Amino acid sequence: MTGLPARRKNVLHRLQRLFCGRSSFPFGLASSPSFRYLERMLRLTILASGSSGNAALLETEKSRWLVDAGISARRLEERLRAVGVDPGSLSGVFLTHEHADHARGLRVFLRRHSLPLYCNELTWLALAEEKTIDWRRLETARRLELGDLEIESFPVPHDAADPVGFLFHHGTGTVGLVTDLGYATRLVLEKMSQCRALLLEANHDPALLQADSRRPWSVKQRILSRHGHLSNQSAAQIAVEMARRSLQEIVLGHLSEDCNRPELVERAIRERMEQESPAPLSVRVWTERSPASPLCWK
Asked: What is Dmax (Cα atoms) for the chain?
């Protein structure tokens, strides 16, 4: 990794340390593209999460999937290899919406590795991609069975063509990814209530956002709107409410680099949990400087 910028190199080193090498992974994982798993398992690894880019790796005993590709194809490949995954071993890519921080590296990555793209039609049209991309229509609110996974997408309020959150149903449980939404609708809450684990955005601290001199008022209004992004307090309220149901683990991500800090997210969660005393909940915060370890079940 010589020649890489220091910050980029640090992220790769942290990801590698979290895994301690593919040979020591649980469940008998192998690094070969033609991998075989020895036990039923489900693992979620966040490769990038924040205003500058988002991507996650979902693995089962039979398949590997990428959710979003919001960093360059080269950085995406580096981070996959840092956790022992050959990009060519992926089964495909799911896309939540077309914004650059979720699709920046998508075009190059798909072509380089000949992978199918799963997203709804309005998102596909917003991408304005060429027909050389292997697009697979994923209808919002309908379930799709792919191998040992059942994928369910659902609409979320955000300022994109047809943005969605995802539920991935597996024999070990359900994991949800909901990273861009202005507020949680009843439908979104109902979907998240099915999750054993959840990646949820905690985008900004309202006070820091209001004090930010680099963002014009129109941008602040967009972020704070019902089609913008969740604040720390909104994310904390959702976390506590889901902890009363089936949620056991939550990762808070998509933190604004300028208008949020991990300690503010943690404080919002702690204060809300102290007020309402929900069931025990494992809480992690993901940042580029401190990637959260993978969520694993078997």
From this structure: 54
Find all residues with CB under 8 Å of 99, minimum gap 6, and list them.
70, 160, 180
Beta-carbon count within 10 A of 128 CB: 7
Six-digit token string for 139: 């209808």
Q: Does the predicted model carry a pTM greater than 0.90?
A: no
Between CA 61 and CA 165, with CA 176 as vertex, the angle to 5 degrees is 120
Query: Which tokens go with 140?
Result: 């919002």
Q: Are 265 and 290 in contact (CB under 8 A)?
A: no
pLDDT (tens place) for every residue of the chain, 298 residues total: 555 566 666 666 666 555 533 332 332 233 334 444 446 899 999 999 998 999 999 999 999 999 999 999 999 999 999 999 999 999 999 999 999 999 999 999 999 999 999 999 999 999 987 778 999 999 999 999 999 999 999 999 999 999 999 999 999 999 999 999 999 999 999 999 999 999 999 999 999 999 999 999 999 999 999 999 999 999 999 999 999 999 999 999 999 999 999 999 999 999 999 998 888 999 999 998 888 789 998 8
User: 50, 288 in Cβ contact below 8 A?
Assistant: yes
